[in-house]
Amino acid sequence: MSRSLPRLGAVITGRRLPSITAPRALVVAVAVGLAISGAGFVGPPDHLPTAAARVSDPALASKIASVMKDSRITKGRTSAVVYDAATGSELYQRSGGRASIPASNTKIVTAAAALHTLGPGYRFRTEVISRAAVSGGTLDGRLYLKGYGDPTSRSGDYAALAQRVRAAGIRTVTGKLVVDATYFDSVRYNPTWKTGYADDYYAAPISALTLAPNTDYDSGTVIIRYRAGSVGKKAKITTTPAAAAASLDLRNLTTTGKKGSSTTFSASRIHGSDTITLRGRVGAGRSGSRLITVNRPDLYAAAVFRAELKKAGVTVRGGTTVLVTPTSGRRVLGTDYSMPLSQLLVPFMKLSNNMHAEALTKAMGAKRSGAPGTWAKGLAATRAYLSATGVPFTGLVLTDGSGLTRSNTITPRAMGTLLVKVQRETWFAAFKASLPVAGNSNRMVGGTLRRRMNGTRAADNAWAKTGTLTGVTALSGYVRGRDGRLYVFSMLSQYSGASPRPVEDKLVVALAGWRR
């Protein structure tokens, strides 16, 4: 997969304010503009009452009840609510107070809490630091690379930092390259995640210093590229970024098959292991790639940074070590910044990026309770926001920020209440624009809803977050009816037979076509 939204970065030295290059800023603005104007975006209401006014629409409730008579609902475990977005009045509920696994609907909660706790202008950063004196182009000591959790860092950003080292007059570093990821704790894999998918791209370890190999910003992963070698010999293996290979233990157990033979290539990594094992056959003339997680994102990022330093003409004589950067005598040679949170929400929410959710969760914890950022601290910040917003806590359990875990539970009533209340926030426009838009084929607008509800009244008219785990489906968001009324809906399902997902679409389409 590839995402069209570029990363907005800036490198500064000393105490100068960060600058944004016009072309990169323009492309990001266009991408975010598409997410807004392309979706027929409607901003927050001019007025929301402090107390919900009662709105009754029994005909609508009856219509929704008929939709819910579907056997995929009656044979499963589905909870749902519908609210009038302007008043907060409950128009329909089916077990609305029953807790259910939200899957990636958890990201709605995380995004709102992050916008409140960190602010829409929040930027992750990565610093390169020196402490020793520079004489004759030689830094007589260590060079420090300190991360603050940026899940959108790419090779080009480390290249820019390497150029700042060169611009500081440094040609040789006599000491080691120090990797500092202590802004987050050392628990990189959430304890409630299954270890069986630890090598899958959507479950990468979370580190304060990491790297994404693609424009999807899948941080903590590397692209393994393979192509056929001589028949009977091993397939040829490369990585993207190329420098990543220096930090990885790649075990190539592949073979090259005859012309016309099938390709059975696989790549796997056991939880906690640095070894990536490559198996299977690659047919003659064939090639391909696989995205896989790394065990130590900090060392992965360091390997890429070292390679970029070498390209910039900077030699580091020492090896790489993991330490805490001293607070005294620091000189920041360069800082790389991510795009602001208001823009980062687009790839995060549209494409349901788990690593973004977890980085934001730990960043909230670090800001609210001090470094290191942890899941416990970050989730406490999330709960604090929900409490202040008046979201009911009945049945609420949060153990991660992305919804990859099956331990999270929330009620549709809590989710719906949050979606009503966030309309009052100054950042609501950015929040709503980040939600996938039904039936919009533009990947950075439609996101995970781009192939759903196409050709219906809900297309380009419903903004909602999807959620999927085995036996779990969820959909929560906003849709505007034919009479102009904006509805909030939340539908959470657990099932063992046929998926209720088509009924989610029927619910939203029914609301989109409703006229009082």
Automatic annotation (TrEMBL):
InterPro entries per UniProt: Beta-lactam/transpept-like, Peptidase_S13
Residues annotated as transmembrane: 21-42
Keyword Hydrolase recorded: yes
Gene3D superfamilies the UniProt entry points to: D-Ala-D-Ala carboxypeptidase C, peptidase S13 (3.50.80.20), DD-peptidase/beta-lactamase superfamily (3.40.710.10)
GO molecular function: carboxypeptidase activity
A Pfam cross-reference name: Peptidase_S13
UniProt keyword Metal-binding present: no
Alphabetized UniProt keyword annotations: Carboxypeptidase, Hydrolase, Membrane, Protease, Transmembrane, Transmembrane helix
Family, per entry: Belongs to the peptidase S13 family.
Protein name (record): D-alanyl-D-alanine carboxypeptidase/D-alanyl-D-alanine-endopeptidase
